[in-house]
Amino acid sequence: MKITSVCILMSLCQLFAHASSQKGTMEVARTDVTTSFGSIYVPGVAQRTTCDQSGTINDVGPTTSVNSTTTCTTTPGRPAQEVPVAHQSADVRVIIDDQKLVIECSVGWRRCVTLQPGMYNVEYSLKKENWKDIWVFGNDTVTGKAGRVKYRVVGEW
After folding, report:
1. Do 29 and 93 form a contact (C-beta atoms < 8 A)?
2. CA-to-CA dists, residue 29 to 58, 59, 156, angstroms
3. Using 50, 70 and 90 to split pLDDT, how confident is the model at 147?
4. Cα gap 29→24, rounded to integer Å
5. Do 107 and 41 meet the contact criterion of CB atoms below 8 Å apart?
6. CB–CB of 86/35 below 8 Å?
7. What is the model's pTM?
């Protein structure tokens, strides 16, 4: 009985927390592409040396002789470094259902397309009446295949 109650409660929570998905059209008013520069830290690697030893011992009467060889190989290390990176994002001002929104796509996190002013078919999700994600549909200019690109709603204008 207890397990059944927990399962029903979890199902209800998922039902109410799920974002609703809707289809419509979107008008792009303006697109601003920005590039920010920064750096990432790459830790260094210590130098490493490995050695192999081989030899023989001859113990004949009162005389003992040792004949040995040691061969070492050193792999050089690499110092820590800061590597410069450029991060590009597109902030797009759009109108969907008479609401003026700013949507964003960040290169490096996902595939982005610079949207030109015009009308686009979209699918968008709302979670508790808040805008969440917008999928913009279109055809790839190189292959002609239909595809979609995900944008995140970052605010209103």
Report:
1. yes
2. 90, 93, 13
3. confident
4. 16
5. no
6. yes
7. 0.57
